[in-house]
Amino acid sequence: MLQRDYVLEIIGQFVEGVSRALRRAAAGEKDGLVATEQEIGELLELDHATALSLAPDSLVTMMVLSGMGDSMAAYVCYALERLARLYEAAGDEDAAGLRRLQARAVAESFGCDPSTPPAELAALDAELFG
Questions:
Q1: Rounded to the nearest 10 degrees, how much is the dihedral formed by the CA atoms of 103, 120, 35, 44?
Q2: 96 Cβ neighbours under 8 A, 6+ residues apart
Q3: pLDDT value, residue 3
Q4: Which of 14, 27, 83, 105 is close enough to 56 for a disulfide, judged by CB 3.0 to 4.6 Å?
Q5: What is the pLDDT of residues 28-71, one digit of tens each?
Q6: What is the DSSP string of 35-96?
Q7: Does this model's pTM top 0.90?
Q8: pLDDT tens per residue, range 84-129
């Protein structure tokens, strides 16, 4: 019960933070891209620069080792995939490619769909990417 409450609290904070960051990034603010990566890092309880420089399989391994991978996979997958789109729009093909590969690895390992946003992010997704 306590762990479930903890996970729900962490996910709630992530949804709020990543929503703000993705809005900024979609508006063309470069710091919105970094802020989105920071939100992902915080959710994973890792330094964002370290976490998001990992090879896709290594990122999945870190999520498995955290013990909360199943609970947060759909959120991480969603954020990585949308971040890939935003990097692509900004002309950074290398960052876009890595984020897309990371999203795909998370999706394959945890059985989530990067094209389907978590319920809490569906309205944001329709607003920014619909």
A1: -60
A2: 84, 85, 87, 88
A3: 72
A4: 105
A5: 998 999 999 999 999 998 898 998 899 999 999 999 988 877 88
A6: HHHHHHHHHHTS-HHHHTTS-HHHHHHHHHHHT-HHHHHHHHHHHHHHHHHHHHHTT-HHHH
A7: yes
A8: 999 999 999 999 999 999 999 999 999 999 889 999 999 999 999 9
**Cα of 79 vs its chain's centroid, Å:** 3
For 91: left if phi > 0, alpha if psi spans -120 to 50, otherwise beta; the answer is: left
Chain centroid offset of residue 42 CA = 10
Distances in Å between the Cα of 91 and the Cα atoms of 30, 33, 39, 98 are 12, 13, 22, 14
Q: Which residue has the tokens 């692509």?
A: 88
At residue 89, what is the residue type? A
Cα-Cα-Cα-Cα dihedral sign, residues 88, 55, 20, 68: positive
Question: Could you tell me which residues come within 8 angstroms of residue 116 by beta carbon, excluding any fewer than 6 positions away?
Answer: none
In the chain the first and final C-alpha atoms are separated, in Å, by 36
d(CA 41, CA 85): 18
